[in-house]
Amino acid sequence: MMFGDHNFEHVLVLSAYLFSVGLYGLITSRNMVRALMCLELILNAVNLNFVTFSDFFDSHQLKGAIFSIFVIAIAAAEAAIGLAIVSSIYRNRKSSQKNNSNVSCIILVFLVVSCCLV
């Protein structure tokens, strides 16, 4: 095994910290680009958990690492689509702030729900 009990707890604390910073930034940020970056932090925390638990429970198989690669691919596609939507809203409204339009809030909720479905 790669992790001892002590290192395992440190990795989980780091993952929880990344997840909380991402969640706090997602809730409090008014800029949609910053919200997308915080969403990526949340996904990276989840990937860290996948790899850690996969190595801790079954170090001979790479199920967690393979699943995290799929999550990274989905996150990249989601970020590309999200940035395209944000740039389209910016082109039409000259602002990427979340409080300036109801459409941007709906899009952000859609991105969060699609992230949770992963």
Quote the average pLDDT: 76
From the N-terminal CA to the C-terminal CA, the straight-line distance is 27 Å
Helix content range:
over 70%
- Strand-residue proportion: under 5%
Please describe what this structure looks like.
This protein has 118 residues and is an all-alpha fold. It has four helices and no strands. The protein has helices at residues 5-28, 32-57, 63-93, 102-117. Helix 2 (32-57) packs antiparallel against helix 3 and helix 3 (63-93) packs antiparallel against helix 4. The protein is elongated, with a radius of gyration of 17 Å. The model has no long low-confidence stretch (mean pLDDT 76).
List the helices and strands and how they pair.
Blueprint: H1 5-28, H2 32-57, H3 63-93, H4 102-117
Quick description:
This protein has 118 residues and is mainly α.
List keywords for this structure.
mainly alpha, single chain, about 120 residues
